Each structure stands twice: as C-alpha cells, then as structure tokens.
Sequence to fold (300 residues):
Amino acid sequence: MSNYHLDHLDHLESEAIYVLREVAAEFERPALLFSGGKDSICLLRLAEKAFRPSDLPLPLLNVDTGHHFPELNEFRDRRATELGARLIVRKVEDAIAAGIAVPVPGEISRNRLQIPTLLAALEEFRFDCAIGGARRDEEKARAKERFFSFRDAFGQWDPKNQRPELWNLYNARLNPGEHMRVFPLSNWTEMDVWEYIDRERLDVPSIYFSHRRSCVRRHGQWLPVTPLLPPRDAETVRELVVRVRTIGDIISTGLVESPANTVTDIITEIAAARVTERGSRADDRTSEAAMEDRKKQGYF
Fold:
C-alpha cells in the first residue's frame, strides 16, 4: 500500500494541471490570458508543467489599457520571450481608434473599455477558450465562478446559467460564437499563490516588493503619482516605501506601506493581513456590484 500523499500545494497544482490538459483536449483554439501579474505567472508555470517538453499549445493574450505599470509590461514581454511563447497584445487605445471601445466623456478608468477590446480579440483570432488566473477568494462575484465559465454569443456571463461540474467532469460543448473562460486557480488563495511562487522560485515584477514611490492619499488609500494621476490642489505628495498586492491600472491600484523585499517577507505579511488584496483596488471599491456587473458584460 502506497504511503504517498500530496501536500496542499501539490494538490492544487495537480488540479490546475488537470484543468489545463482538459482545455487542450476539449478546445480547438485556446489562449492563456497573461498580464505578468502574480496569478498569471503561476498559470504560466503550470502550463509549462502540463505540456513540456512540447511547446505551449496556446498563445498568450494580454489586453493593454495603456495605463499599465511599465514594470509589468516589461516583465510580460521578457517572460514570453524567455519561454518562446507567442504573445498577442491588443491595446485599448487601438480599440478606441477603431470604434470598438467607446469611452464615456469624463471617464478616467479603462476597466470598462477592456471588455470590448478583449471580446474583439477573441473574435479576431477565433479563440474558443480563454484561460484566466482569477481565484474565488478574490471577490464575491469571482466566488460564483466555476472552473469552466460559459460565455454566450455576446461574450456575456450569466451566473444563473452555469454548468454543473460534478466529479470534475466539465461540459465544454459550445455553439458557434460562444466561448469558455477557464480558471485553473479557482481554489487557490493569495497565500497559496505566494507559497507556490516561493516553492517554484518564480520571478515576479519588482513592484510586488517594497520600493520608494511618490504617493497621494485618496479614497482611503495610497495611489501612485503619475502623469495619468497627478496630485490635486489640496493633496500632499509623500515619498513612501510601498508595494502592490494586486496590480490593475496604474490609476486605480492602491499601494500598501510595506518593508517586504523578499517573497518570504510577503508571505509573512499576508498571514497577518486583515484586508483582502482587492481592498486596495479603487475600481472594485466603487460598489459591491461593480465586479459582477463588469463580468456579466464580458470582463475577465
């Protein structure tokens, strides 16, 4: 009788690899959404373990809002080159110029504009599946996701019209125009992600570690001062030692004061944290329904 047991991370890894291999078996044209953030970094390592020594059987896809941290885009491009993977980048600015994405007057955030940009990219390359790094612990709307999240012909998500996943059996059948979003990290937590990064010795963008940056206090959090987010008249700019926990647009990503400059430091910090990682995202704090509304329209 075997005494072999999987530990917690081994179990999560095995589950995610199984899901990735199911995607490769069930879909004709899948893509992996890769931003260079910590979750997609783990996804990429899992894809390596699922398919190496063969080439990755799917391209990497990123929607660039034009408001990304430069460190993130540099890491994204470098990592794709190191792996010899095909990287497809579609920019919100190009979608605006083509009339695919239409900004509302006075709209600053480009979160909403990512939706038509992504859906247009899926249609352009006829992708029938998009693999994302979303986790159920991130946010209430994300907790409603299945591993295989069905999207209709308009790219929309209906949380009341999802398919059962009994005994890890996934229904991948699609009609023309429909597609699937698949989330292999569904059962992972923020702590699991960082422990996996530590175990696998994965490289991550420098902004996850403590660094000095000019910040302003707005909406109860520290935001980075940039040409896209200049300080207002009544605001005082402060030089702080900060890092990011979760990365979105540079105009909505809150910074946390932190001395953590190693992965071990970050794991210790998360263990003591009392605020969720997306609690530092201004785009999620506007209303409890913000994420679910965006997802119903076709958001990641």
In short: The CA atoms of residues 42 and 197 lie 7 Å apart. The beta strands are 30-33, 60-64, 87-91, 129-131, 148-151, 179-182, 211-218, 221-224, 238-243, 256-257. The chain is about 30% helix and 15% strand.
